[in-house]
Amino acid sequence: MKKIFFLVILFISTITLSFLFDPLNYITKSNVGLQLQFYNKGGKISIYNPFVYKIVSFDNFTETMRFPEIVKGLAYIESGFNIHALSNVGAMGVAQFKADAAIDYGVFNAWNPQQALLGADRMIRYYYQKYNDIYKVLAIYNIGETNYKKGKYIEQGNAYANKVISASRTVSRKSYLYDRYVLYLQGTLTENSSQTYTAFSFGGIFDYLGIVYFDISSTFHFREGYFPIELGTKSYIRINHFASFVIGYNLGYNLNYENEISIGPIIGYSHFRPIGESYEIYYDFSKGFSLNNFFISIGYGNKYWRINFGFEPEFNNLFINITI
Asked: Measured in Å, how far apart are the chain's first and last C-alpha atoms?
């Protein structure tokens, strides 16, 4: 009876958390994703499916803005109010800031809509004080002040300004911002210590306003004389556009060894540049104390693909990971 109760709680908690809420590699994608992970003995295949949902009205962020209508039109044209929009050149978030420009206007996390929208308002204020022409300001937002002064891409900038002004007049302030959550399935087949080892996982990735990201999953392991079930959760607390502290917890239940339970925290650090390098390291204390319990991943990629190399303690294997 205890086994059945544990399984039911495990199943319900994972599915419920996955559907109620919404890391960054998958949330910025709008299409179904495939990940292939090759171990030195075996492999893993993962399928990720993103879902779009409404989160909060734009009007919630306008209280301290000087140009709320302009920012509204700008956010609509830049991202369609999607807080995890990512351009081919690395512009991020609902206001499509690049990392260097974002910091100049107090935006340290471009995925957070409050920081991004207020940062866009600060940038518009700054250039409006300088040029006193909202069309020039919007053109500069699009093509950059250096290009504007040199007379480059002026037609593009002017067309952008007209689009923003038009959207500012037609789009409602009560329009909702959008986010994504991701559900995934994973299947693993490896060989370890002369034993065939299979595992099946399902879970969800979601976030709260680009501030905290959650990866929650249930994993079922199958091998001779061993049938453990694990519920794992990792929280990515965002420090800036690219860096996060990783804090999580792992709970394992073994059906065949006197109802053995393994529990422990997960602690680490993640750096993920959506167009560029990524690396992540964390330690899973639920597996005991050993250097083999460090997860390490180093990679490079862009909006459409990513390659990672590393070590995964769950299967005690080196891996190459390809995400498309």
From this structure: 43
Give the residue from 195, 217, 223 showing the smallest Cα distance to 204.
217
- The reported pTM is 0.85
pLDDT band at 10 (very low <50, low <70, confident <90, very high): very low
Number of domains observed in the structure of the chain? 2
Cα(130)–Cα(126) distance, rounded to whole angstroms? Answer: 7
Query: Is the distance from CB of 266 to CB of 282 less than 8 angstroms?
Result: yes
Residue 101 tokens read as 């420009």
Contact indicator for 50, 208 with CB cutoff of 8 Å: no
Q: What is the CATH number of the domain that holds 90?
A: 1.10.530.10
Q: Tell whether 150 and 89 lie within a shared domain.
A: yes
Please say which residue of 152, 172, 192 terminates a domain. 172
* Judgement on whether residues 48 and 84 belong to the same structural domain of the protein: no
Query: Which DSSP state fits 252?
Result: E
Q: Is the dihedral of CA 261, 262, 265, 270 positive or negative?
A: negative
* pLDDT tens, position by position, 30-57: 888 888 888 877 888 999 999 999 999 9
Among candidate residues 151, 172, 193, the one where a domain is terminated? 172
Q: Give the domain range for residue 119.
A: 63-172
| CB-CB contact of 229 with 201 (8 Å) | no
Q: If you write DSSP's letter for every residue of 178-193 in order, what string do you get?
A: EEEEEEEEEEEEEEET
